[in-house]
Specification:
The protein is mainly alpha-helical. It folds into two domains: about 70 residues, no CATH class; about 325 residues, no CATH class. The protein contains 20 helices and no strands. Helix 9 packs parallel to helix 11. The chain is globular.
Length: about 450
C-alpha cells in the first residue's frame, strides 16, 4: 500500500520531482563520469558528443561552401568536432559510428539560421528549443486524448517527462528525435483542431527523420484516402510541401536522393542498428515478428479508417501507431522513446480498466509499469549512493538503470494492441464525420 502522502497532490509532485532529480543526478554523477573514465582508460576520443553537430556541420558546408555533406571528407570534419579527432578504423577501441550526414538534404533548411553562429551557442539554443517542445508536446497529447487533469497532475506528468531517461538522453545529446516528436504532436493538434493544411506542412517537415514518421504517414494516408472528399487538404498540403522540399534540395544539391540512400545504408553498416524486436529476438525470427507486427498494424489502420479526427478513438489509434513504430523501425536509441509519451498517457489514463480486463492485460501492464519505473528507482538510488560511496564503486553499476529501457516498447505496444481489441473489437469504426478535418 502506498504511504498516504503519495496519494495527495503534493506527495505526487514531490515523488515526480524526486524521480526527475534522481535521473539527472545519476546522469551527471554516475553515467557521464563513467563514460569519461572508460574513454580515458581505452584511449577513446571524446569531443562535443552532440548529435546536432553532424547535421549542423553538414548544413554549414552545403549552404556556405556548396560541399556535398554526404562525402567522406565532410564526415571526417564532423568526427573532428564530435569525437575530438577523426576516428581510426584500425584502432579497436575507436568508435564504430562514423557520424556521417545521414539525413535528407532538406534537414539543412531547419539549421540554416544557425550556420553563422558558434556551435556552442547553437547547442545551448537547441537544447532549450527541444526542451520546450517536449513539454508542449506532453500537454498537447493530454489535450488530444481528452484527458481532463488538474494542474497539479499535469505538472507532475511534465516533471516525470523531463526526468525520464529517454528525454534526459535526448536533451543531453541534442537529439533531432525530440524535434520530430514535437512537430508530430503539433501537427496532430492542428489536425484535430481542423487545420489540416498546417498539419500537412508540419508532417512533411517531420520527415527529416523518415523512419520515425513512416508508420504514422501510412496510417494517415489510409485515413485520408477513405474520405478523400473531406480530407484531401491534409494530403495536398503534405504532398505539396514534400515537393517543395525535395525540389529545393535538388536545386541545392543535384542528385542528392541516391547519395542519401547510400548514406543510410552506410549508417546501418557502421552502427549495426536494428529494431527493438531485432535486438531482443535472434535472427530470422525477428524479421517474422516485425512483419507480423506490421500486418496487425495495417489491420488496425484499416478498421480505424473512418474515425473522426477529433475523437478519442482517433487519438488512441495515433498513440498505438507511434508505439508500434518503436518496435519495428531499425533503430533502438532510448531517446526515440519520446514517441511513447501518448501511449504511456493512454495506459495511465485507463489503468483501472486495463487491470480489470483480464490476466494478459494485467501481466503486460505490470511488466510495462516495472520497466518504466525501474530507471527512475535505480537511477535515484545510484544518485544517492554517489554522495556516500567512492565514484569508482558507484560507476561500476552505471548500466543498471538501462536494464529495462529496450523492454519498455516491447511491453507498451502489445498492451496497446490488446487494449484496442478489448475495447473496440465489439464495435466497428464506421462513423465518418462529414465536417472539418474529417
Amino acid at each position: 500500500m502506498r504511504p498516504a502522502i503519495f496519494r495527495t497532490p503534493l506527495g505526487l509532485l514531490l515523488a515526480a520531482a524526486l524521480c526527475a532529480a534522481g535521473t539527472w543526478t545519476y546522469a551527471n554523477r554516475v553515467l557521464v563520469p563513467y563514460q569519461k573514465s572508460d574513454a580515458t582508460a581505452r584511449g577513446r576520443p571524446r569531443g562535443n558528443l552532440s548529435d546536432l553537430y553532424p547535421r549542423w556541420v553538414g548544413a554549414k558546408e552545403l549552404l556556405l561552401h556548396r560541399r556535398d555533406p554526404y562525402t567522406a571528407e565532410v564526415s571526417r570534419e564532423i568526427q573532428t568536432g564530435y569525437y575530438g579527432r577523426p576516428i581510426d578504423p584500425s584502432r579497436a577501441e575507436d568508435p564504430r559510428d562514423e557520424q556521417g550526414f545521414a539525413y535528407p538534404v532538406y534537414a539543412v533548411f531547419w539549421l540554416a539560421p544557425t550556420i553563422g553562429l558558434p556551435f556552442p551557442v547553437v547547442q545551448r539554443g537547441f537544447f532549450w528549443v527541444i526542451l520546450v517542445l517536449t513539454l508542449a508536446s506532453t500537454l498537447i497529447w493530454i489535450r488530444v486524448l481528452h484527458w481532463a487533469l488538474p494542474v497539479w497532475a499535469q505538472t507532475s506528468l511534465l516533471i516525470l517527462t523531463l526526468g525520464s531517461l529517454s528525454v534526459m538522453q535526448g536533451l543531453k545529446l541534442q537529439q533531432m528525435s525530440l524535434l520530430v516528436a514535437g512537430l508530430v504532436a503539433i501537427a496532430i493538434a492542428l489536425l484535430v483542431a481542423d487545420y489540416p493544411v498546417a498539419a500537412g506542412v508540419l508532417l512533411a517537415a517531420a520527415t527529416i527523420k523518415p523512419q520515425l514518421v513512416l508508420l504514422l504517414l501510412i496510417w494517415l494516408a489510409i485515413w485520408t484516402i477513405t474520405d478523400l472528399r473531406h480530407r484531401y487538404r491534409l494530403a495536398v498540403s503534405f504532398l505539396a510541401t514534400m515537393l517543395i522540399l525535395i525540389g529545393a534540395s535538388e536545386w541545392l544539391l543535384p542528385h542528392w536522393i541516391p547519395r542519401f540512400w547510400h548514406a543510410l545504408a552506410e549508417y546501418r553498416r557502421y552502427t549495426g542498428t536494428v529494431s527493438v524486436i531485432g535486438l531482443l529476438v535472434p535472427g530470422s525470427f525477428a524479421r517474422i515478428l516485425e512483419l507480423l507486427t506490421f500486418a496487425v498494424f495495417l489491420v488496425v489502420c484499416w478498421r480505424a479508417r473512418r474515425l473522426a479526427a477529433g475523437s478519442g478513438d482517433f487519438a488512441f489509434v495515433l498513440s498505438l501507431v507511434l508505439a508500434t513504430t518503436l518496435l519495428v523501425v531499425p533503430t533502438y536509441g532510448p531517446y526515440n522513446q519520446v514517441f511513447l509519451i501518448p501511449a504511456l498517457l493512454v495506459l495511465v489514463k485507463e489503468r483501472r480498466t486495463i487491470w480489470q480486463s483480464g490476466k494478459a492485460s494485467r501481466i503486460l501492464f505490470a511488466l510495462a509499469t516495472c520497466a518504466v519505473l525501474w530507471p527512475w528507482i535505480s537511477g535515484t538510488a545510484l544518485a544517492a549512493l554517489s554522495f556516500v560511496l567512492l565514484p569508482a564503486s558507484v560507476e561500476r553499476a552505471w548500466a543498471v538503470p538501462l536494464w529495462t529501457v529496450n523492454q519498455i516498447p516491447v511491453a507498451v505496444a502489445p498492451l496497446m494492441f490488446i487494449r484496442y481489441y478489448q475495447q473496440y473489437s465489439q464495435r466497428a469504426f464506421t462513423a465518418p464525420v462529414r465536417s472539418g478535418a474529417s
